[in-house]
Amino acid sequence: MTTNRLRFVTGEEDIAMRKKNLRAYMKEKRGENENRDGKETQMLENLFSERAGLIQKGETKKWFVYLSFSSEARTDLVIERLLELGQEVFCPRVDGKDMYAVRYGEDFSLSKYGVREPVGEIYNGEMDIVILPMLAVDGQGNRLGYGGGYYDKWLAAHPNCKRVAFVFDMQLLKEVPSEETDQKMDMIITDKQVLFVKEI
Questions:
Q1: Rounded-to-integer distance, Cα 53 and Cα 46, Å
Q2: How close are the terminal C-alpha atoms of the chain, in Å?
Q3: Residues 129, 195, 183, 62: what is their CA dihedral angle, to the nearest 10 degrees?
Q4: Which residues share a beta bridge with 188?
Q5: What is the DSSP letter of 86?
Q6: Does position 11 have pLDDT exceeding 80, yes or no?
Q7: CA-CA distance, 159 to 153, in Å (whole number)?
Q8: Which phi and psi (to 5°) does residue 114 adopt?
Q9: In this structure, are residues 163 and 130 in contact, taking their beta carbons and an 8 Å threshold?
Q10: How far apart are CA 81 and CA 23, in angstroms?
Q11: What stretches of the chain show up as alpha helix (H) in DSSP?
Q12: What is the pTM of this model?
């Protein structure tokens, strides 16, 4: 038997394969999620709860919030509540290999993936809080995104903002495969709990 055609999986390839398989599994599982309205209502309440402590009376913060797509937890009500509270809201827009913050408004375009994106000028300043889309997260703050690397790159350039995972409780896993370039979350908001990663 010859070994010149054998191929051994390296550590990086193993993680990439695990991520790919987990993405497929979590997309299917999230799509089968039941009682979404009730869960999303509870997620909203947990996000704005006293325990989360993200909103302080009389204080205006800059929020970077994803515009939900497909079976993701809806963020429209989150944005509506933030605006009612006088907060500044920005949403992502992708241009080439980079993602930018644009102030939330009434006009939108659709990305090549079919995701809504705000129309307007790019804001290059700092954000206070970012609410991220994802397929899964674990108690150590490891996030499983969609594989494009847009948020990891953006977060690396904005290290001081608070990173919030806004997910259904079924998306909170014991372990998510991660690499050095993957950016960690600070807080996890689900329909059942508010978790601070540093406390776990």
A1: 10
A2: 50
A3: 0
A4: 165, 195
A5: T
A6: no
A7: 10
A8: 85, 15
A9: yes
A10: 30
A11: 11-31, 36-47, 76-84, 150-157
A12: 0.89
**Angle formed at CA 96 by CA 78 and CA 185, multiple of 5 degrees:** 40
Name the residue with higher pLDDT: 166 or 2. 166
Q: Is 159 left (phi over 0), alpha (psi -120 to 50) or beta?
A: alpha
Rg over alpha carbons for the chain, rounded to the nearest Å, is 18
Sign of the C-alpha dihedral computed for residues 75, 71, 178 and 170 taken in this order: positive
Contact 177, 121 (CB under 8 A): no
Three-state secondary structure call for residue 55 = coil
CA atoms within 13 A on the CB side of 17: 6
Token reading at 24:
């497929």
The two structure tokens encoding residue 11 = 């550590």
3-class DSSP assignment, residue 157: helix
Which amino acid, residue 33?
N
Q: Helix-strand-coil percent breakdown of the chain, rounded to 5?
A: 30, 25, 50
Q: What is the pLDDT of residues 33-65, one digit of tens each?
A: 999 999 999 999 999 999 999 998 889 999 999
Selection from 116, 95, 113, 114 nearest residue 104 by Cα: 116
Lookup: tokens for 36: 């979404």
Tokens (6 digits) for 189: 């908001």
Q: Extract the tokens encoding 55.
A: 């909103």
Q: Which residue has the tokens 């909203």?
A: 44
Distance CA 177, CA 196 (A): 20
